[in-house]
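Case study.
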Amino acid sequence: MGPEVLHDVTFEINAGEFRYLVGPSGSGKTSLLRLLFLAQRPSRGLISIFGNDVMVAKQAELVGLRRKIGVVFQDYRLLGHLSALDNVALPLRVAGAKESEIQTHVSELLAWIGLADHIHALPESLSGGQKQRVAIARAVITRPRLLLADEPTGNLDEALGQHLIRLFEELNRIGTTVIFATHNKGLVARNPHPTLTLASGEIRAKKPPKKVPNNTLENTNGKAG
Amino acid sequence: MVRRADMARRAPAVLALGRDAPSRFLPWVFALMVYLAVLALAGVLILHSAVDRWQRGEVGTLTLQLMPQKNESAGARIVLAEEILEGIGGVLEVRVVPQSESLALIERWLGVGNVPDDLPLPRLIDIDIAPGSGVNVESLEQRLGQSLPGISVDDAKAWLDRLADFGRSLELLAIAVVILIGLSAVATVVFTTRMGLSIHRDVIELLHLIGARDGYVAAQFQRQAMILGLRGGVTGIVFAVATLYGLRHVAGRLETPLAPEVPVAYWAWALLAAAPIITALIAMITARVTALRELGKMM
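After joint prediction, the assembly is written out as follows.
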């Protein structure tokens, strides 16, 4: 087991919130997000997502939880041999949705994010902004309750970054909880939302939680080793 | 609006397993394994049928020995034996072995020119009988013994029994070879599946993160292994059948009753033709079990 990346990290996020996760590079943002999107379990501590203790959740329960979470990666993580449509369709296909429904929903979503003319394009023929929009479409196609974004504007210019944050705010307005990791202070200043600040693996400042309803994502002293 | 062609299209493979190195060489490995396994299986079938024939005494050749009698000339006894044999249904050919050939057989043991003139040598008659005619040692001895005392019929049973034992040992060896080939196929699929899981680790993690169950990921490996198994199996069986036809042609020119027959029974060919399907099934099941076991170790 390697060195502990996160320690003394305690926070709660209520359903419907939009929260920035900020901090310098190497502060542990990606490690915290990996714990939240269930790519790994903490070495100690408690992580409760939608009321489920991640430490003791069984494989089948993790699958159910992951289907309620959408993830946007900084490096997009699109599958190079699949078209934009097939990349966005992935979460529906793994959930066993009907092919006719998949084609309809995915086409509509791609049209909504301005990629109607690129449905059959492979990722290599798309620009950085277009790839990021495909990645976002893949994250939201199943209408997840929680959307986690790891530096989604990191590879984009300011105008495109601003366009994407509008997209996330739109999704938040229709009920999706958003955690948006970024080290772009300008972006945070232009589009103010409550922040969760990480520095050297610790929470430095946080907004005091209000009332904690059932529909809550909670990380109490979770550690990633 | 979604085009009709889009609606009808099939979902593409999520893991690009077809582009991996194993997907290029695995069909040839399977082809070689199926080729060897089918030849070994054909060997088992050929040997099994030959051993069966040898043991049932259906070789078709018997040897009659006429011991010299004091009051009868050898020539008269031979003529009488030929007459009786020609009257027995199922006797295809009768050949009296010349005395010189019988002497030559003895000279191998006593040395050339060392056979005494007064040594009572039996006269030999080779008889070819039709398979399934029911003519055997007992029936011939019974028919001939009444008119020709001092006669004996030899079907080389003891020698054929030893040959049959040897044949059975070869059968077991061929079965062991087929089992070893099967185990090698399983080990190859385990190795390539693990390699595939390692190559596509990032994509598999992504699939997990978007809610894929292990069974969904394992199905990708299972499908690919089945396709490669079928492809290799069909290639292997084509070469194996061509080889067996060649063998059958060569065996047909041997003109010896002991030559084993290349099996022509439909069930035997059906068993051999099932080799690609069996290969695909083995590959498919092995890939699924391996993938599920390895995926279970991931979060």
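Observations recorded in class. Chain B touches chain A through 25 residues (CB under 8 Å). Residues 198 and 204 of chain B are 9 Å apart (CA to CA). We will return to this complex in the next lecture.
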